[in-house]
Design a protein that fits this description.
It contains 13 helices and 15 strands. It is of the alpha/beta class and about 400 residues long. Bound molecules: pyridoxal-5'-phosphate (PLP).
């Protein structure tokens, strides 16, 4: 493989036209779309219209005339298509952290006689913190049991109320077998919750096929919905009627504008809405979701695996023995990111960023690179690893300015 070979692969890439849809700064190689997706050009236009016309001119009329009220379910239905879920099972809104709280509380209420939540020790901390806080709030002896990935199936015994996992691990990129683990949880009478923060728009997901009970996920990562974009929440159709999601707000009521004093849940997934939708955030999210829907997932996954393999092979050649590969070597077990560990990972990443190759760092020692096939080219991967080689050979990461820890790593 040479740099010219990369150029040839890019010329033949069916996803190549998607790159033009994004505002990527000149000279930047962006390997952090798993943390904050880039700006789609259409988002700037959509937001400008939503602000100046829908809000500015139409004012409150837009709730009825611009489809504002339907945004959580309309965009939810679009996200459902990315997740192998039926229409009417997903709403867009609120943050992933809040949605984790809501589905976890609902899931625990489905198994009132059980007290154990099983999750992964290296799950994203907000999921664990939310679970810890909910256990304390319930005051009924619930406990969070943190397990290493390979020991998960054996940990699913009859005491387990809920298995709560992130499908693709944020640090290692390890992708769980959603179907097998959901079945294992169900076989022992448990409920399965999946966090799809690093899956939605990134890897094939089949919530219905896997039999997942609940799911949540992020809008600002692979869905390119913008900083702080609303997240989403899924409830399996069979559970909808028996589920009481907490935060029973007025827009989840059967008749919000009847202003009744007592709560009655709305039909179907609408009951999962809490309050007034964040219209501007949802407008931006919808653009990102529409782009994701227009890219065939088989092509996205195929290119993601090729780019990741190219990245890892190039690192082995360009920086032999310098990094430990943390992500699974098997393509099928890896989500859409690659992770290398190095004791000086933070400074190395800062030096890379100074060269306009943007990835991120996860404590204690992980260099993380998001693989986003809609706008990343083979040649970008080649050049990124060349930059990494130069950073390592020159030792420029040792400079004091690269050692200083910033608030967001
Ligand atoms: C990114 C991420 C989150 C983020 O939650 P917010 O409420 O949006 O801050 C939650 N869970 C996982 C697994 C994530 O990767």
């Amino acid at each position: 493989m040479t740099r010219d070979d990369c150029g040839r692969l890019d010329a033949a890439d069916p996803l190549a036209p998607f790159r033009e849809r994004f505002a990527l700064p000149e000279g930047v190689i962006y390997l952090d779309g798993n943390s904050l997706g880039p700006l789609p050009h259409a988002t700037a236009e959509r937001l400008s219209h939503a602000v100046t016309h829908e809000w500015g001119e139409q004012l409150i009329r837009s709730w009825n005339t611009a489809g504002w009220m339907e945004m959580p379910t309309r965009i939810g239905d679009k996200i459902a298509r990315l997740l192998g879920a039926a229409p009417g099972t997903v709403v867009a809104g609120d943050s992933t952290s809040v949605n984790v709280y809501r589905v976890l509380a609902a899931a625990l209420a489905l198994r009132p006689e059980r007290r154990v939540i099983v999750s992964e020790r290296s799950n994203f901390p907000t999921d664990l913190y939310i679970a810890e806080g909910l256990c304390a709030q319930l005051g009924a002896g619930h406990a969070l049991r943190l397990i290493e990935p390979e020991a998960l199936p054996a940990a699913l015994d009859e005491s387990v109320a809920v298995l709560m996992l992130t499908h693709v691990n944020y640090r290692t990129g390890l992708m769980h077998d959603m179907t097998a683990l959901t079945q294992a949880a169900h076989a022992r009478g448990g409920v399965a919750i999946w966090d799809l923060a690093h899956s939605a728009g990134a890897v094939p997901v089949d919530l219905a096929g896997a039999g997942a009970d609940f799911a949540v996920g992020c809008g600002y990562k692979f869905l390119n919905g913008g900083p702080g974009a609303p997240g989403f929440l899924y409830v399996a159709p069979a559970l909808l009627d028996q589920t009481r999601l907490p935060l029973t707000g007025w827009l989840g009521h059967a008749a919000p504008f009847a202003f009744e004093p007592a709560y009655r849940p709305a039909e179907g997934i609408r009951r999962a809405i809490v309050g007034t939708p964040a219209v501007l955030g949802l407008a931006a999210l919808e653009v990102g979701v529409d782009i994701a829907l227009s890219a065939p997932m088989e092509q996205v996954r195929d290119k993601s695996m090729r780019l990741a393999r190219l990245f890892l092979e190039r690192v082995q050649r360009a920086c032999p023995g310098m990094f430990r590969e943390l992500c699974p070597s098997q393509d099928e077990r890896r989500g859409s990111q690659v992770c290398l560990s190095h004791p000086e990972g933070y400074a190395i990443m800062q030096a890379l960023i100074a060269r306009n190759v943007i990835g991120d760092f996860r404590a204690p020692d992980i260099l993380r690179f998001g693989i986003t096939p809609l706008y990343l080219r083979h040649i970008d991967v080649w050049d990124a690893v060349e930059a990494l080689r130069e950073v390592m050979e020159s030792g420029e990461w040792r400079a004091p300015e690269f050692q200083r820890r910033l608030a967001v790593t």
